[in-house]
Amino acid sequence: MVENQLDLTQEKPDKASKILPIITVITALLALSTTAIFIKIAVSQMSAVATLFNRLWIATIIFGLWNGINQARTQIKNDEPILPQERYPIKEIAFLIAVGLVHLLGRLCWTWSLTQTGAANANALGSLNPLFTTLGGWLFFNQIFGRKFIIGLILAIIGAISVGFEDLLRSNNNITGDAVAVISSVFYAANFLLIEQIRNKFSVLTILVWRCVIGTSLMIPIVLIFEKQVFPVTLSGWLVVFALAAICEALGHGLIVYSLKNFSSGFISLLLLLNPVIVAILAWILFSENLSVFNLLGLALILGGIYLAISNKESVQSKVNNPIQSPEESKS
Question: Distance from CA of residue 259 to its chain's centroid?
Answer without folding.
Answer: 10
